[in-house]
Write a structure and sequence with these properties.
Elements: H1 17-26, H2 32-86, E1 90-95, E2 97-98, E3 102-119, E4 125-130, E5 137-138, E6 143-148, H3 150-190, H4 198-237, E7 240-242, E8 247-252, E9 259-260, E10 272-287, H5 288-291, E11 299-304, E12 307-323, E13 329-336, E14 348-356, E15 362-365, E16 369-371, E17 376-381, E18 387-391, E19 393-397, E20 401-406, E21 413-416, E22 429-435
Helix pairs in contact: 3-4
């Protein structure tokens, strides 16, 4: 038997197509589970991609929905701003008006009594009684209280006794003078060298002069004692406290039995306070800007701030004629009759003056003024609603309005709050019509 070499052995037959098909049909039975797993993973990936795409679309829609209104609003605002930039600026206006010949000036004032004084004791003693109390009206000369002063009474009695003694001494001196004169006459008639010596006559003459001097001394002593009597009589009169003028007792500081000390500033105190309330003195401090418009005899209306409808008419009585250098105000007094006691001293009042204005004064709102470094101007609208700046001279500042002394004639339309943006000749549009500002 012939053997062939190994490399010459015939190759195994190649499988035919039928065999491959049979093999292909046989394999799935062993690998079925692996193919199902791959298909599941493919389906899950496709589902995740779909959900992500939907979320992105939703976010994009929300972004567009939120952005578009804002963009439209910005577009509308830019359009409105463009329209406003093309339109003329809108301004508020008022009418410049001629000032009336007079105006009312109201200033605060205070009421003071026409006369008001504390009543002091003039002598030391004890208060015996008081006859009036706070709120009582008294008349001039009415007895208010009495003070017991026994020491003053004793001193007055002693002074009167000294006066009687001085008068008696005067009679003695006058008698001695009469005797001295008679003696001198007798000795002179007798003659020197007969019954009377010359020395005796000289002595008689000296005695006459001496007794005459004693008479004059007695007279002077009488006058001194009379003055002492008057002094203690006056002190005794001060035992009675008398009202010096009609008024109202507004305070009482003592009771019966209280020790009253006089002429001692550290210990003495007023017994009563007395005020005359009819008329009242109304004092007003007029500022410098109005001081030259106040005159004696000028009519005024006075009222309480809590009751402005109840007016009291009076005239200016006097002024200080000079301004207080500390406050730059003019002290003005008005004497107001107060027979029914409707006003009280110490009240805070309001005084209304009717003040005359200078001629050719125009009033404009304070907000219409424009202050520039070299002048003051007012923006006035012409017939075409164009701004024209007028130089003006201002007067008094009345609060809401200002007096214009020159630069306006009255009746012009002025711009209120013009600011710095309005240029000369610029076209403007008025808002709200013309306002006639009132004080």
């Amino acid at each position: 038997m012939n053997q062939q070499p190994a490399d010459e052995r015939p190759a195994p037959p190649a499988p035919n197509d039928a065999a491959r098909r049979d093999t292909a049909h046989a394999l799935p039975a062993a690998g079925h589970s692996s193919g199902d797993s791959h298909k599941g993973r493919h389906r899950s990936g496709r589902l995740g991609l779909g959900v992500g795409a939907l979320a992105a679309v939703a976010l994009a829609g929300a972004f567009v929905a939120a952005t578009l209104p804002r963009l439209r609003q910005e577009r509308d605002l830019r359009a409105a701003a463009a329209r406003l930039a093309e339109e003329p600026p809108r301004v508020s206006v008022a009418a410049a008006r001629r000032a009336p010949p007079t105006y009312e000036l109201t200033l605060p004032a205070n009421a003071q009594p026409f006369c008001g004084n504390p009543l002091y004791a003039r002598v030391n003693g004890y208060l015996t009684r008081w006859l009036v109390d706070i709120g009582d009206r008294v008349k001039e000369g009415q007895l208010v209280a009495e003070i017991s002063t026994p020491d003053v009474d004793d001193q007055l009695a002693q002074a009167r006794a000294n006066l009687v003694l001085a008068q008696a001494n005067l009679h003695v001196a006058e008698a001695n003078l009469e005797l001295a004169k008679i003696t001198l006459d007798r000795d002179v008639k007798a003659g020197v060298g007969t019954a009377t010596a010359l020395q005796t006559i000289d002595q008689d003459r000296a005695q006459v002069k001496t007794t005459a001097a004693q008479v004059e001394s007695a007279k002077a002593n009488i006058e001194a004692n009379r003055a002492t009597v008057r002094q203690y009589a006056d002190l005794q009169a001060f035992q009675k406290i008398i009202a010096p003028f009609p008024g109202v007792i507004t305070a009482r500081t003592v009771d019966p039995g209280a020790l009253v000390t006089a002429d001692n500033p550290s210990e003495s105190r007023p017994l009563f306070y007395l005020m005359q309330t009819d008329p009242l003195r109304i004092y007003v401090n007029v500022p410098q800007v109005y001081s030259t418009t106040i005159a004696v005899g000028q009519d005024t209306d006075i009222y309480r701030e809590e009751d402005p409808r109840h007016l009291f008419s009076a005239k200016v009585t006097r002024t200080a004629k000079a301004l207080d250098p500390n406050t730059r105000t003019l002290l003005t007094e008005i004497d107001l009759p107060n027979p029914r006691d409707e006003l009280r001293p110490g009240m805070y009042l309001q005084v209304k003056f009717n003040v005359a204005r200078s001629a050719n004064v125009v009033l404009v709102p304070s907000a219409a003024l424009v202050w520039r470094p070299d002048t003051t101007v007012v923006a006035v609208l012409d017939g075409d609603h164009k701004v024209r700046y007028h130089k003006v001279q201002t007067g008094r500042d009345l609060g809401l309005e200002v007096e214009i002394l020159s630069g306006l004639e009255g009746g012009e339309t002025v711009v209120v709050h013009p600011g710095d943006a309005l240029a000369e000749g610029q076209q403007v549009e008025t808002v709200g019509g013309k306002v006639d500002a009132e004080r």
